[in-house]
Amino acid sequence: MDKIIRLTQQNAEFDAELRKRLNIASANSAIINDERITQIYEYCIEKIIKKQAIEFYQDFPLTSIKPTLVEDFCRMESFRRKDNFGDFCLSLYQQIECITNKLCEDHELSAITSKMWGCFAYITGNNISNRFQDKYNTTIARLIFYKPDDDLYSIEKSKSTLQEQTARYKMKILVYFLGYKAMMKTSDFNSYIEFTYLLSDIYMCRNMNHRGNTSTEREDETLKKINSLQSFHYFKFMGGLTQYVDYIKKGLEYIPELKKYSDSLSLNSKC
Question: What pLDDT digit, counting tens, does each position of 239-254 carry?
Fold first, then answer.
C-alpha cells in the first residue's frame, strides 16, 4: 500500500488508471479526496510511526514497559500530526512518567539516594569519591530540593524515600543520579537547571487538558509563553524526551558503581 501511494504521486498514468478501477468520477480530482485512498495513506503513516516508535525504544533496557512506551509514542506522534498540542504533551509526558515510576520502584536505587543525600553535589575530575565543598555547602539534597530562604526544606525532603517523592522531584533525582551519574561538575549546573526546567514545563503542559487545576502566577506565564509558540515546543519537548531516555539508558549501567560507592558510606555522611 505504501508503494501504491508513492506510485500515484510519481506516475500520472498509474494515478488515472487507479481512479478508473476504483470508479472515481473525475480522474483530475486530488487523490486524497477519495476516502479509500485516504485510509490507505493514513494506514501507511501509522505503520511508519509504529516502526519509528519501536526503533526509538529498541535498545531501552526496561523491557517490561517497552510495549506501553511504544504505544504512547505512537499516540504522541498522532496528536502532533493533528496539531493537538494538549494531548501531545500528555502522551509525551506519560512516557517520561512510565519510565520514572518504574525506576523509582527500584529499592536499590532508593537506598543509593538515601545514603548520598548528605554528599557534596559537585566533584573534581572523573572520580565519584572526589567530591568538594563549595562556598554554599551544596549537598546533593540541597541541589535537588533547593528552596530559597529555607535550608531546612531540603533536609526534610531527603528524609522521604524515593517512592514518596513528588513527580517533579523524582525526575530531578533521576537526572542527577543517572543522567549525571552522581558526578556533576560545577560547569554542569546551568545545563542541569535548564533540562530540569524543561521537564517541569512538560509536566505543566500535560495538565492543560485537565479541568479544575490551580496554577501559580509563574506557571500561568510559562504556559502562555509556550502556547504562543506551540510549533517550536513540539520539537523542543520531543528533544527533552529523547534526552531523558538517553540519560536513563546510559545511567542504568552505572547503578552497580553507585551502589558500591553508597555502601561504603555511613547514612547521610558528607563524602
Answer: 999 999 999 999 999 9
pTM for this structure?
0.82
pLDDT at 27: 45
Of the segments 125-134, 135-144, 164-173, which one has the largest average pLDDT value?
A: 164-173
Which DSSP string do the residues of the chain spell out, in sequence order?
-HHHHHHHHH-HHHHHHHHHHTT-S-TTS-GGGSHHHHHHHHHHHHHHHHHHHHHHTTT-S-GGGHHHHHHHHHHHHHHHHTT-HHHHHHHHHHHHHHHHHHHHT-HHHHHHHHHHTTSBSBBSTT-TT-B---TT--BHHHHHS--TT-HHHHHHHTTS-GGGS-HHHHHHHHIIIIISTT-B-GGGHHHHHHHHHHHHHHHHHTTTT-TT----HHHHHHHHHHHTTHHHHHHHHHHHHHHHHHHHHHHHTTHHHHHHHHHTSPTT---
